[in-house]
Every structure is written in structure tokens, then in C-alpha cells.
Amino acid sequence: MCIQSLQEENDRWIDYLQKALTTSRKKEEEEEKYQEVTIGEQGIFNLIYEAKEAVITLTIYQKEIDSEIQKLTQTLNQQHTLPTEVTKPTPPTYTNVNLPQLSLSVFNGDPRQWREFWSSFNAAIHSQTVLEIQKLNYLISCLKGSALQAVRGFDIAPQNHEVVRKLLTEKYGDSSMTTKLLYNELRSIKRNEKEWIEAVEKKWKESSDN
What we know:
single chain, 210 residues, mainly alpha, Gag protein, DUF1759
């Protein structure tokens, strides 16, 4: 499949950048080439995303067509078994699936931002009546940094949506971790007493919000 081939080529390139290159200059040149190929509207990442969206849409249409074929088959069978009755075939009904636009917030792995991110994502995607594979696809598209690395090994499959969601919630949704991070930030601040008080009040407010 083309999507898998693109992903495999991307993984091999990353592995080459990390292991095969020995000189820093050569590595910088290869990294620039890698960014030119992967970033932007015509980049590998965007092509992979658009291809996955197309697969999802085609899968939805295929299921709708299969459902209508089954209905028509049942209608024809009824006409053959009941010749005295005039049965009108049920007109096809198509479900208009409105996929949300991807103007969603992005989560980079900072536990302090998890609650805000999930509230937004839950309202826009997770609580909507769309397929599990769509929810997973949108969720992964909103991740970057360490959060994306944490779920990189999972395939885009319906059964993986709940697994990925639980993994992220357990890893980044722990309030004690957020409190610890805020406390460490307070300890690292070295300013005068007034600035210290202002910083404490700010961090306390962030802790209360989480």
C-alpha cells in the first residue's frame, strides 16, 4: 500500500540520519534535504495524512453502498416469494458524514496542557458520532513531540483508538505530575521577593486550574 511505503521510506531515512551519518556537516545537509521532502503541502507527512483521510472516506462510502445492496437484495427476494404483492423498492438513503475541520489544538507532551487539550478534543471529536478509526486518526494528527512518539507504534485501526486514548490519559493526565512540575519551576526561579510572590500566585493559579 502506498501509505505504508511512504511511512517505511520515512522511517528508513530517519534511521539513516541517526545512525549512518558520521560528520556533522553531512548530517546537516541530509537533515535539510529531509525537511524539504517531508514538510509543506507537497511533503511526505501531508501526503500520508491526505491518503489516510481518503481511505477513511472511501471506507465509509463502501459500507453505505454495501448496506444499500443488501436492502435491494432483500426487496428482490420478497418480490419473488410474494408474487401477488406489489412491493416498491426502498429508495437508497445516504448518510451525510461531515468530518470536522482540523483546526484543532495540538498537544506536545506537556502534562500541564493535557487537560485543556483533551477538553477541546473531546468536544470537537471524541464525543461525536463518528467511526473509531476517524477519532484515532484525528487524535494522532493533533499530537507532536514526545506525545506523538509515545503512540508511534500503533497502527491506524479502530481497535487501537481506546488503547491510545487510555495510554495518553495515564501518561499525561496525572494531576500529581502537573503539581510536581509546577513545584520544580518555583524552586528554579531566582528573583526578588516581589517577583517571587507573583510567580507563586501564578503557579498556584495554574495548579488550581488543573
